[in-house]
């Protein structure tokens, strides 16, 4: 299928602007790949230290027989339901490596925090920067530099982007990402949302709310809504960094262990075939565009408009929100998964899952097929679904959609566009995810109510002060102000106001969760207020117009008056409180160094 001209144009534009950085990156990568293997290159004391803790047979293999050695970087902890299954993965991976004449070592662990636990608390202000901390941890793990390939064990919001950023700084290594899968379905996401809205109105108490939440989040695996964690898994498939079809097999499914073992076979397959497919070459401009297309086609998390900018930068590639917006105009929405529909990711998988989406996009010319992947068969392998046949892994064609309420073909999509809009105007640059917002809500014009944090908004809601048409401006929420926490806690009260018939919108330099939905929200406003951005000039009563049709975000104030208006400073008490307690002091350097949201909020550049 001929490549869609917009996809070709966006890819060409990215390649042109990225040429100097990408060339320098590949030069460093290829120089690292040309070195002798670690155990041959290092001094005897270094080698002895590196392998002192492994079984004698493994030590003999890797040193004397020069067997491949795989480094495992794991985000295991039993605090997160999604990461708890990883506890037993290293033993399985090592066992499979030994069967194939290789060795594997846990090179290191990285932190993994749960936004669901920290949502609306001070701990959430560490969340975004945990991504770069994970990248640093990945670099520390791989810095022992005795590995021929790597396996990355991580799933959730900041964990996969962090692992990917770290891995790309060791781009000479063949690297496979190893998922753990979603939890089986419990209380539906839509029913859970209804209980949350009732709680926001005081119609149910804490006991009823906790019961509903516990029925929704009830066992091992990722949360079942299509938020950032599950968007991560879709993107790993689209980039060709998984074993094909591994994303959404439940942890309890017997197929999960076989897919985990296949990740070892896949990594070693690259080495044994001498096929030059290190992660730094796989993740090129085409691969990044494929990820963007898959995100848009599935209505994925807005967090990736930050994370994948940072991921691309790690491979010497520069993308921006104009690229996302241009692709969104031509990539159709093929999936309806909560919060963009009623289905959860288990229903998405049953209907055809990532394989169906990738096939439809490839056949429509909306993904690059001529890309490297961790599999020799290329991206077409990712259009198939894994299954077991007499104890062996086999892949079958995805076939037609198993449920056209969940997945539709590219010729009959839910929407002709990807549902993401870039907003520009005198309030800066921001993005809005409209795929879950009713069309009659795509334009909101109303007086502003300005808040210095989400607690102020919640207090105003409880006091009945927002029972009107209103644009809630929540500022001082960007990377430099307080680490850019998600403001998903605001969704229930704003949804209640919208449900009462009021014209309501949110405008913020903070983030919304991958679970943000039906309330129009202009998010990631850049430059942020703490850097002197225009949100610091908005006053209560200013009329703000959010127009997702025209792609504008404007405060309707006379130009001369707006230009002359003072830009207020972040309240000192707020700045002081943002910097203390729950470990926030340790992240002061990251807050100072963070780039804008559109630049990936990177802290290492």
Automatic annotation (TrEMBL):
Free-text remark on how the cofactor is bound:
Binds 1 [4Fe-4S] cluster.
Q: Which organism is it from?
A: Ramlibacter albus
User: Does the keyword Cytoplasm feature in the UniProt annotation?
Assistant: no
Source organism superkingdom: Bacteria
The cross-references to Pfam families, in alphabetical order and at most eight, read:
ILV_EDD_C (PF24877), ILVD_EDD_N (PF00920)
Q: What EC designation does it have?
A: 4.2.1.12
* GO-annotated biological processes: D-gluconate metabolic process; Entner-Doudoroff pathway through 6-phosphogluconate
Q: What is this protein called?
A: Phosphogluconate dehydratase
Q: In which pathway does it act?
A: Carbohydrate metabolism; Entner-Doudoroff pathway
Q: Which residues bind [4Fe-4S] cluster?
A: 156, 223
Give the first-level EC class, as a single word: lyase
User: What are the transmembrane regions?
Assistant: none
**Hey, which family's this protein in?**
Belongs to the IlvD/Edd family.
- Known SUPFAM superfamilies for this protein? IlvD/EDD N-terminal domain-like (SSF143975), LeuD/IlvD-like (SSF52016)
Cofactor(s) recorded in Swiss-Prot or TrEMBL: [4Fe-4S] cluster
Q: Which NCBIfam families match?
A: edd (TIGR01196)
């Amino acid at each position: 299928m001929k490549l869609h001209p917009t996809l070709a144009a966006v890819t060409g534009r990215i390649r042109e602007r990225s040429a100097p950085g990408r060339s320098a990156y590949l030069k460093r990568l290829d120089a690292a790949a040309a070195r002798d293997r670690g155990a041959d290159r290092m001094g005897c004391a270094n080698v002895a230290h590196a392998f002192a803790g492994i079984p004698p047979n493994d030590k003999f293999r890797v040193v004397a027989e020069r067997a491949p050695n795989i480094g495992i970087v794991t985000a295991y902890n039993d605090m997160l339901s999604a990461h708890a299954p990883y506890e037993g993965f290293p033993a399985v991976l090592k066992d499979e490596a030994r069967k194939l004449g290789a060795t594997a070592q846990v090179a290191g662990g990285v932190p993994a925090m749960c936004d669901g636990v920290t949502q609306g608390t001070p701990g959430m202000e560490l969340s975004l920067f945990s991504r770069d901390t994970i990248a640093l941890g990945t670099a520390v793990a791989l810095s022992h530099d005795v590995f021929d390939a790597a396996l990355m064990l991580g799933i959730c919001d900041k964990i996969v982007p962090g692992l990917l950023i770290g891995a790309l700084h060791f781009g000479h290594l063949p690297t496979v990402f190893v998922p753990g899968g979603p939890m089986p379905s419990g209380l539906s996401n839509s029913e859970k949302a209804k209980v949350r809205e009732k709680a926001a109105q005081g119609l149910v108490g804490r006991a009823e709310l906790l019961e509903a939440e516990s029925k929704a989040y009830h066992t091992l695996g990722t949360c079942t809504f299509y938020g950032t964690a599950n968007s991560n898994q879709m993107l790993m498939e689209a980039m060709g960094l998984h074993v094909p079809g591994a994303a959404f097999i439940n942890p309890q499914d017997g197929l999960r262990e076989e897919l985990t073992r296949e990740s070892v076979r896949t990594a070693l397959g690259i080495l044994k075939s001498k096929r030059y497919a290190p992660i730094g070459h796989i993740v090129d401009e085409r691969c990044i565009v494929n990820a963007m297309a898959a995100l848009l086609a599935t209505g994925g998390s807005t967090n990736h408009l930050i994370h994948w900018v940072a991921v691309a930068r790690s491979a010497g590639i520069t993308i921006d929100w104009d690229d996302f917006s241009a692709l969104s105009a031509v990539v159709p929405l093929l999936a309806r998964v909560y919060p963009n529909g009623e289905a959860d990711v288990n229903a998405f998988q049953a209907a055809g899952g990532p394989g169906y989406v990738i096939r439809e996009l490839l056949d429509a010319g909306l993904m690059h097929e001529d890309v490297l992947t961790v599999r020799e068969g290329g991206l077409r392998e990712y259009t198939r679904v894994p299954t077991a046949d007499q104890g062996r892994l086999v892949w079958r064609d995805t076939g037609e959609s198993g449920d056209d309420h969940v997945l539709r073909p590219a010729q009959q999509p839910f929407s002709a566009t990807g549902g993401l809009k870039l907003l520009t105007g005198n309030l800066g640059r921001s993005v809005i995810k409209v795929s879950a917002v009713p069309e009659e809500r795509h334009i909101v014009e109303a007086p502003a109510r300005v808040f210095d944090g989400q607690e102020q908004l919640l207090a105003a809601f409880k006091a009945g002060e927002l029972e009107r048409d209103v644009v809630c401006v929540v500022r001082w929420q960007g990377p430099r102000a307080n680490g850019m926490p998600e403001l998903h806690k605001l969704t229930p009260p704003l949804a209640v106001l919208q449900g009462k018939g009021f014209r309501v919108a949110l405008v913020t330099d903070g983030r919304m969760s991958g679970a943000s939905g039906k309330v129009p929200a202009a998010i990631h406003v850049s430059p942020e207020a703490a850097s002197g951005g225009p949100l610091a000039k908005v006053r209560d009563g200013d009329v703000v117009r959010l127009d997702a049709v025209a792609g504008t975000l404007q405060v309707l104030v006379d130009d001369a008056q707006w230009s002359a208006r003072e830009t207020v400073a972040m309240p000192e008490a707020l700045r002081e409180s943002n910097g203390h307690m729950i470990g926030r002091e340790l992240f002061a350097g990251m807050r100072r160094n963070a780039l804008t949201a559109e630049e990936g909020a990177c802290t290492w550049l």
